[in-house]
Specification:
This protein is α+β, with helices and mostly antiparallel strands and about 375 residues long. The protein contains 16 helices and 8 strands.
């Protein structure tokens, strides 16, 4: 019997949700395997080298890790219908929203999980990791498993100083998305894009499924909750269309403006830090030594609150996707994207300063 796609993921996991929703929309057959402690040790650590989900094992016994690479690998095998819009404005916006959803929306996701849903998350972690234990044993396991996640809050910039600002920003985003999903099933029409799957990661696993956060979403942004439900159980798998003529819905303008206001300054500082790090370490060999996950700390601002957070190199690997797409555009297509960026306050993204190119080898980010 031929083995199918084995998906190592969990409902509680940010990036598992992104991949699972994609496979359901594309009708890709898979079996989901709960990452117990034994699975982490015997499968994930053995194949990847560090404890992470989601992980995909293919029928050919290949190992795929990282939600974006998993999805793009599937796109080569199951290309129709594409989750990447063809129009330059829609595709650039989709790629950019994926970066922002994957990397920046960790801030509200982690804030709400560990300040408002802690007991629920600990119970979930214990149940998933040690289904063989009783409730007390699972609670103890959950507490231990939660330590690195909850302990990561300061590195993300989640502190008592930023807590009220995070909630103001997130609730503002919910209002913007609620207005958009009042008129559109998905971000760019009646077909989900890579941006929808990226956005679903945090908005499902942490903000819809965690009980306190779910109550907030359903109360102040019911249309967002309905979108989450469509993404969870797609009403028309492999169906739908992107808006014609590369139309950009006006209701997405506030979201793009938010990305430029909150996230673009962090990306610019991150690129500068990477450039300085590589210049200070001439011994780095392209493709060999993994880059540090973080390059020290820098200051950021959110809704008037100032705090420090880690400088994450992974953001720049993701950012290469929209930047490379923009660099390849010519003529009227490029002008259309540049005009969209100008309207969103993203002129600096259009002329983003060059930084050392990154790639992934053996599941780690390295210099290209």
């Amino acid at each position: 019997m031929t083995r199918g796609y084995e998906f190592y993921g969990a409902e509680v996991s940010y990036f598992s949700g992104k991949v699972r929703a994609y496979m359901r929309y594309k009708r890709i057959p898979f079996s989901e395997i709960t990452p117990t402690r034994d699975i982490y040790r015997n499968v994930i650590l053995a194949r990847v080298g560090w404890p992470v989900i989601p992980v995909m094992v293919t029928p050919e016994d290949e190992t795929w890790q990282d939600s974006t690479e998993i999805i793009d690998n599937f796109e080569t095998r199951f290309p129709d219908p594409s989750i990447y819009p063809q129009g330059p404005r829609q595709k650039f916006a989709a790629l950019l929203i994926e970066v922002w959803a994957d990397e920046w929306l960790k801030i509200p996701a982690m804030h709400y999980r560990w300040t408002k849903n802690r007991d629920f998350a600990i119970a979930e972690f214990g149940r998933l990791s040690r289904p063989d234990l009783d409730e007390a044993g699972q609670r103890a396991t959950g507490e231990e498993t939660a330590k690195p996640f909850a302990g990561a809050l300061p590195a993300l910039g989640v502190t008592p100083v930023t807590g009220p600002a995070i909630e103001k920003s997130y609730e503002g985003l919910l209002a913007e998305l609620n207005a958009h999903f009042s008129n559109h099933d998905f971000l760019f029409g009646s077909r989900p894009s890579i941006a929808d799957f990226g956005l679903y990661g945090p908005l499902y696993a942490h903000q819809y499924r965690d009980p306190a956060s779910g109550e907030i979403m359903k109360r102040i942004a019911p249309k967002v909750a309905e979108w989450v439900q469509r993404m969870t159980k797609p009403p028309h798998p492999k169906g739908g269309e992107f808006l014609k003529n590369d139309e950009m819905p006006e209701t997405l303008a506030p979201v793009l403006q938010r990305i430029m206001r909150e996230y673009l300054p962090v990306l610019l500082k991150t690129a500068d830090a990477l450039k300085r790090h590589v210049e200070a370490h001439p011994e780095l060999i392209a493709g060999k030594e993994p880059l540090p996950r973080a390059l020290g700390m820098h200051e950021f601002e959110l809704e008037g609150a100032r705090e420090k957070r880690a400088i994450f190199t992974f953001d720049l690997w993701m950012l290469q996707r929209p930047l490379d797409f923009l660099a390849a555009l010519r003529g009227s297509e490029r002008e259309a994207v540049l005009s969209m960026l100008k309207e969103a306050g993203g002129e600096q993204l259009a002329s983003f300063p060059p930084y050392p190119r990154l790639t992934r080898r053996q599941f780690k980010v390295v210099l290209e």
